[in-house]
Write a structure and sequence with these properties.
It is a single chain. By secondary structure, the chain is an alpha+beta fold. It is built from two helices and three strands; from the N terminus they run H-E-E-E-H. The protein has one domain. It has a three-stranded antiparallel beta sheet with strand order 1-2-3, with no helix packed on it.
């Protein structure tokens, strides 16, 4: 997590690591250097891949937000996390983004 300005990530700390499934081969984030720099300056880059960038996204971007933070778009599949779904994979607390969203929008 590189920015928690979004209500969706309000329960996360900068530097938190999430382990999430990836279920795409086409999904990646691209943009000019100017656009990417602007997103970084505004805190709209929410999460980045760590150690390995499986999609080839510019700057390892995994998710980003709208300018006001209310919309979170991500490449990984937060909705595919649950107990007993994967073997030998540590589960991270991803469902708190949904709880944070309900707290904010509810």
């Amino acid at each position: 997590v590189v920015s928690n300005l979004s209500p969706w990530l309000s329960k996360k700390e900068i530097g938190d690591i999430q382990i999430l499934p990836l279920s795409t081969k086409e999904g990646r984030i691209v943009g000019s250097d100017q656009v990417i720099e602007g997103l970084i300056e505004k805190g709209q880059i929410a999460t980045q891949y760590l150690e390995f960038n499986p999609t080839g996204s510019i700057a390892g971007i995994e998710s980003m937000t709208s300018p006001d933070g209310r919309v979170l778009g991500r490449v990984a599949s937060s909705d595919r996390v649950g107990d007993g779904l994967y073997r030998n994979v540590e589960r991270s607390e991803c469902d708190d983004i949904f709880k944070a969203g309900v707290d904010y929008f509810g």
